[in-house]
Structures are given as structure tokens and as C-alpha cells.
Amino acid sequence: MNRSVRIFGVLSVRFIFRRISGSVVSRSRRSRARPTYDRRPDEFYWLWIVATAAYGVGDVVTTIALVYFVPHLGEGNPIVRFAMDSLGLWGLVAAKLAAFLVMVWISHLGARDGDTLLYYFPPLLLTIVGVMVTAVNLRLLFT
């Protein structure tokens, strides 16, 4: 029985059902197939290095510059704003790190289960979001 669910018509979250109701894939099939990150470890690392540079470094550094050096601007994301109001700079880092670790976990599960969409989607999404948010922050910083 295929217990696949689609969110937004794109993102497959079969791993949720594997956690709740047991594995959909037989153990013999899973033990024979090596996870994607074992077959191509350099690819896995480089996907996440680029995502870290764009989302982790670019967004965090430009957000810190905006919040602390431009007096009339603040954080636009209400979750990150709440974290920063509560914990300061560490709240920003904690919120970004939490989002990053959830995406690494999803990618790891996709690689382990052979789901290429779940393997590639998280680092690509973080890279795209990171580049876009960094560009917006830079535009706000220099205008």
C-alpha cells in the first residue's frame, strides 16, 4: 500500500508515515540500497555548503547589519523577531539553526529512502531563499 501524501502538490512526505506506521519499504530492499549520501558524499556536502553560505552566512550577517546598524529597520519575520526580542543575537542564530537542521534531516531521510525530491529540495530551497533574502537585505542596507 502506498501511503504517500503530497503537500502543495510537490513535496512528498512519505517519511512521516514510515515513522508513524512502520516502514513501507521492505527491510531486504532497504538493506541492499545504499543511501544517496553514501554513494555520492561530495555532492551531499557541496549542496549543504552552498546552502550554508547563502542561508546561514549571507542572511544572518546581513540581518545583523540591518538590525544593529540601521536604526529604523527591524526583522520582518515574526518568528525570528520574537526570538531576537527574547534572546537577542542568539535568538536569530537559534531560529536559523533550527530551520537548517530540520532541512538537513529531511534531506537525510530522502537520501536514505531513495527519494530524490526530498534529497535535493531542502538544500536548493535554502540556497534560493538565502540568496533572495540576502539580496533584499543588501538592497535595504545600501538604499
Describe the model.
With 143 residues, the protein is mostly helical. It has one domain (35-142). Helix content is 76%, strand content 3%. It contains seven helices and two strands. The chain has helices spanning 14-21, 27-32, 36-39, 41-69, 78-87, 89-113, 116-142; strands at 6-7, 11-12. The protein has a two-stranded antiparallel sheet with strand order 1-2. Helix 4 runs parallel beside helix 7. The radius of gyration is 18 Å and the shape is elongated. InterPro entries: DUF5658 (IPR043717). This is DUF5658 domain-containing protein. Keywords: Membrane, Transmembrane, Transmembrane helix.
Brief overview, please?
The protein is 76% helix and 3% strand. The chain has 143 residues and is mainly α.
Number of helices: 7
Helix content: over 70%
Tell me the strand order in the biggest sheet: 1-2
Alpha-carbon Rg, integer? 18 Å
Tally of DSSP β-strands: 2
Strand content: under 5%
Average pLDDT rating: 79
The total domain count is 1
Derived structural class: mainly alpha
The major β-sheet equals: 2 strands, antiparallel
Specify the overall morphology. Answer: elongated
Domain DUF5658: 50-142
Keywords: Membrane, Transmembrane, Transmembrane helix
Pfam family, one: DUF5658
InterPro entries: DUF5658
